[in-house]
Amino acid sequence: MSRCHRGFTLIELLVVIAIIAILASMLLPVFARAREKARQSACLSNTKQLLLALNMYAQDYDETYPPGYTAFQDSPNWRDFVVPYIRNTQVLVCPSQRKDRPVSYGLGYAVQGRSTNSWDDDTRVVAIGETVGYEAKYWSVLPLSSDPATCSNVYIDPRHNNGLNIGFADGHAKWLAKDATENGDIIWQ
């Protein structure tokens, strides 16, 4: 009695490979979006931690936020003031940050060196946000200087699904779409 062992034909094998390739091409963008959402959540956590550090600093220094960035290299900037209030300096780096950018987060111009009681509605005042420079500022398409020490124009970076994480002076942090940050409901300066 003879047994017939029949394998796959080349056509059958190619059809199976094509089906797997089609399924993979449909699933890869979904996985990429899920990975970016996870990075966005980690960044939101970083923003909240930095916001808490800013508020702890303000409590210790007569309800006043730290000064912002200065152009002098030996001068401390806001990060130097809040580092004692954070356990791990990794919160200063967004997981989605481009490698050619020196800083992930910037202190809002509206809070730099000001009292925590300076606003009637601190739920709209930006205390910290994702930047491509040293301080949180208006959206812009202008190029940055290649030398961060001489950079005078710094801009918000919508690196998470065309939006960014922002921490507000009242202590809450959330992700906002780029369009929502341009409608005048947020106080940058």
Structural description of this entry:
The chain is an alpha+beta fold and 189 residues long. It has one domain (42-181). 32% of the residues lie in helices and 12% in strands. It is built from three helices and five strands. It has helices at 10-60, 78-82, 178-181, and strands spanning 105-108, 126-130, 135-136, 163-168, 173-177. It has a five-stranded mixed β-sheet with strand order 3-1-2-4-5. It is elongated and about 95 Å long. The relative contact order is 0.15.
| Number of self-contained structural domains | 1
Between the first and last Cα atoms, what is the distance in angstroms? 90 Å
Q: Could you name the ranges where pLDDT drops below 50 across 5 or more consecutive residues?
A: 134-154
Largest sheet: 5 strands, mixed
Oligomer: single chain
**Which sequence of strands runs across the widest sheet?**
3-1-2-4-5
In round numbers, the mean pLDDT is 78
Radius of gyration: 24 Å
Order of helices and strands: HHEEEEEH
Query: Which structural class should the secondary elements be placed in?
Result: alpha+beta
